[in-house]
Design goal:
Strand content: under 5%
Number of strands: 0
Radius of gyration: 23 Å
Number of helices: 21
Distance between the termini: 30 Å
CATH architecture of the domain at 278-506: Up-down Bundle
CATH topology of the domain at 278-506: Growth Hormone, Chain: A
CATH class of the domain at 278-506: Mainly Alpha
CATH superfamily of the domain at 278-506: MFS general substrate transporter like domains
Order of helices and strands: HHHHHHHHHHHHHHHHHHHHH
């Protein structure tokens, strides 16, 4: 590697890490935000939701813009927007201002990610592409691992605002390196026009889908509002597809939309990621609710998974080059499935130690599967389309993860409600409406043990608490069991539909 190429990878790695660190760190800081602004958990959740929604919605558009106008320009714009929005969020004087800044931050992340993949993919030789993607996603893994620890440390010893201030110097370093050092083979397409109708219809479609998915656990999947949003999603998606097939300046050009290998490989991403999203959500909750872990401690509990992900991702590129996409992706899917099963079998039987082997194996599975799917999908299109392809694949990851997590959460919630009702009946407990509400809020929401003590009394709570834990575990077993089945289906899908050759443009 030349010095310029090393600096390019450093800049791109910084871009990936600030995105990965930010979302995990801010999530840990949410209780402090809630307290500082004297607002509700439902409001502050949009500090994360607004960020992710903007990120996912604009991903495809920004990928296309990167291919059209130059990936260096789009990356530079993205890192500047991300840094400026971080500053605005850190200076926010109310929750609305913070949420608005986070939405802009999400748009900055959307500018960054596809450009990063495009720059990295086009900077190396054919043999190095798997390694390059693995290194970048390994940087994401390091960010994911560091995020909860960093967020907990900065929030505990300084302020939640320090989490956002932390992004600024790194954004400046990446911007300077990019401006003066980063080179790209092409400055973009000549004569390309922006597909405003395509951008509008796909954005409205994705907003409708992701908002419906986000709200479905509280609204219900068959509620009028959820179904209405899903109908809007389907309507705009149909309009988008029909328009894209008739326009000459499509947001997703015909050679990408009709690329069978790209679409089939991309379809694996929504099968691979729901279990990952679920573990990130439920394991910390379990440890905090039933073992008294602090947010910093529960974040540290995920390190075995996130660190093995970070260490495996770079190695997976070399293995990908030897085995090809089919066996690499299949190996990742199998490891994810087995890791999930091990967590289910041994992770909730007693101490946290029983969870570690499953988390480690799961992390290795993430390190194999996500980079391999990304490399295979992006490698299926022409190099001039790599940023767009990367944007689409990561949109699949975010949207598929959100949809899968919502389904798993629904399964978890229904199982918990049924199980705790049976257990309370068997115990002969008769609870008031308020007591039942507080008990379910503790299991399913943000309710505290202190509130349960005041509502139930210490003696009754001690009697029922082990049953509450078992109900939570029952919900996890059914939810994560569903995720394991999806992963197994993904492994079978890989063997049937993914070709074994390393690269072939369709």
């Amino acid at each position: 590697m030349t010095g310029k190429l090393i600096l390019t990878f450093i800049a791109m790695g910084i871009g990936v890490m600030v995105i990965a660190v930010d979302i995990a760190a801010v999530t840990v800081a949410l209780p402090s935000v809630e307290k500082d602004f004297q607002t509700t958990i439902g409001t502050v959740e949009w500090v994360v939701n607004g960020y992710v929604l903007a990120w996912a919605v604009f991903m495809v558009t920004c990928g296309r813009l990167a291919d059209m106008f130059g990936r260096k320009k789009i990356f530079f714009a993205g890192i500047v927007v991300f840094g400026a929005a971080s500053l605005a969020g850190a200076l926010a004087y109310n929750s609305n201002m913070l949420i608005s800044a986070r939405v802009v931050q999400g748009a900055g992340a959307a500018l960054l990610w596809p450009a990063i993949l495009g720059i990295v993919y086009s900077s190396v030789s054919e043999k190095q592409k798997g390694l390059a993607v693995g290194l970048i996603l390994g940087a994401a893994g390091v960010g994911n691992a560091a995020g909860p620890l960093l967020g907990g440390f900065l929030t505990e010893f300084f302020s939640w605002r320090a989490v956002l201030y932390f992004n600024i110097p790194f954004a400046l370093i990446a911007a300077v390196i990019t401006y003066f050092v980063v080179k790209e083979k092409s400055a973009g397409e000549s004569g390309g026009k922006i597909d405003y109708i395509g951008i509008l219809t796909v954005s409205l479609s994705l907003v409708s889908l992701l908002y419906a998915v986000n709200q479905s656990p509280s609204w219900g999947w068959i509620s009028g509002k959820t179904l209405a949003l899903l109908a809007v999603f389907a309507g705009f998606l149909v309009v988008f597809i029909l328009y894209e097939r008739r326009t000459t300046d499509a947001l997703i050009p015909e050679d990408v939309m009709n690329n069978r290998r790209f679409m089939i490989t991309g379809a694996l991403m929504p099968l691979a990621v729901p279990a990952f999203f679920s573990i990130l959500l439920f394991i910390p909750q379990y440890l905090e609710k039933f073992y008294g872990y602090r947010p910093l401690d529960s974040g540290a509990a995920l390190v075995p998974m996130l660190l093995t992900f970070a260490l495996t991702a770079p190695v997976s590129g070399t293995i990908y080059n030897r085995l090809g996409p089919r066996l690499s992706i299949f190996t990742g899917m199998v490891l994810l499935c087995v890791g999930t099963v091990l967590i289910l079998m041994f992770g909730f039987s007693g101490s946290y130690v029983g969870m570690v082997p499953g988390l480690v194996l799961f992390g290795v599975g993430v390190g194999f599967s996500i980079p391999s799917i990304t490399t295979a999908a992006v490698g299926a299109v022409d190099e001039a389309r790599t940023s767009l392809a990367g944007g689409i694949i990561y949109m699949f990851e975010l949207a598929g993860g959100a949809l899968g997590l919502s389904i798993i959460t629904t399964i978890f919630t229904d199982a918990v409600r049924k199980d705790i009702a049976v257990r309370l009946t068997e115990l002969g407990f008769t609870l008031t409406g308020a007591q039942k509400s507080d008990l379910l809020d503790f299991i399913l929401g943000s309710g505290s043990r202190e509130r349960l003590v005041s509502e139930l009394g210490p003696d009754k709570l001690n009697t029922v608490f082990s049953h509450v834990r078992e109900s939570f575990v029952t919900g996890l077993q059914e939810g994560l069991g569903f995720a394991a089945v999806i992963l197994a289906l993904g492994a079978v899908f890989t063997l049937i539909f993914i070709e074994g050759n390393k690269r072939s443009n369709a």
